Automatic annotation (TrEMBL):
Residue ranges of every copy of the Oxidoreductase molybdopterin-binding domain listed in the record: 35-179
PANTHER family: OXIDOREDUCTASE MOLYBDOPTERIN-BINDING DOMAIN-CONTAINING PROTEIN, PROTEIN-METHIONINE-SULFOXIDE REDUCTASE
Originating organism: Actinoallomurus vinaceus
Name by which UniProt lists this protein: Sulfite oxidase-like oxidoreductase
Gene3D superfamilies to which the protein is assigned, alphabetical: Oxidoreductase, molybdopterin-binding domain (3.90.420.10)
InterPro entries: OxRdtase_Mopterin-bd_dom, OxRdtase_Mopterin-bd_sf
CDD domains the record matches: arch_bact_SO_family_Moco (cd02109)
Matches recorded under SUPFAM superfamilies: Oxidoreductase molybdopterin-binding domain
Lineage of source species: Bacteria, Bacillati, Actinomycetota, Actinomycetes, Streptosporangiales
Region of interest: Disordered: 1-20
């Protein structure tokens, strides 16, 4: 057998790539939704951040899309064991959205149109780790994948990346979301294989 440098295409096939434990690579983009896909017109869309003191910050679709955007390329890891490498998105960093939000909260509960929720420590939304994204692979985010906009927080299992995101509540105490209440791990670090409570 010859010596072949894996290069970029090899890397995409997973050669020389270390995946989180128990994960396999997929090239397609599975859709995982716990219920029907809500259809939200951008005219009706709004995103709110509510602080632990009840202060509300609100962004319309126009507000969101006029903010400076970023185009993160990240690997995503679903708890059902597929991982997808090098996905490219466009959206607004939570650092930008939370810049003027006055809070001392430690936890965030993310709410979606349709009723889905998921929780995480507020610090996991900051420092370039999370975005509200509205484009995927150069195209508008489709409804199936969470359009018009979803949370993207790729360092945690993908169930934390709430599709059809509608708001974030900042809280002093942790409060489990939809899958976390159903027995999935409260934090969900794929590299520590935190799939279920007790992992
Ligand atoms: N609102 C909402 N967000 C959600 C989900 C959901 O059912 N509803 N599923 C989660 C899970 S388990 C995964 S793996 C990803 C799937 O995103 P995708 O359908 O774009 O692949 O979305 C997450 N965000
Ligand atoms: Mo998932």
């Amino acid at each position: 057998m010859g010596i072949v440098s894996p290069g970029f295409h090899g890397r995409r096939r997973g050669e020389g790539v270390k995946l989180p434990p128990g994960q396999y690579l997929t090239e397609d983009f599975p859709v995982l939704s716990a219920g029907p896909t809500p259809r939200i017109r951008t005219e009706d869309w709004e995103f709110t951040v509510t602080t632990e003191t009840g202060q509300k910050h609100r962004w319309t679709w126009q507000d969101l899309t006029e903010l400076p955007s970023e185009t993160p390329t990240v690997d995503i890891h679903c708890v059902t064991k597929w991982s997808k490498l090098g996905t490219t998105w466009e959206g607004v960093s939570l650092d930008t959205l939370l810049a003027d939000v006055d809070t001392a909260a430690d936890y965030a509960l993310v709410h979606s149109y349709g009723g889905y929720t998921t929780n995480l420590p507020l610090e996991d939304l900051l420092d370039g780790q999370a975005w509200i994204v509205y484009r995927y692979d150069g195209e508008e985010l489709t409804p199936e994948h969470g359009g018009p906009a979803r949370l993207l927080v790729p360092h945690l299992y993908f169930w934390k990346s709430a599709k059809w995101v509608r708001g974030i509540t900042l809280m002093d105490e942790d409060e489990p979301g939809f899958w976390e209440t159903a027995g999935y791990h409260d934090y969900g670090d794929p590299w520590r294989e935190q799939r279920y409570q007790g992992d």
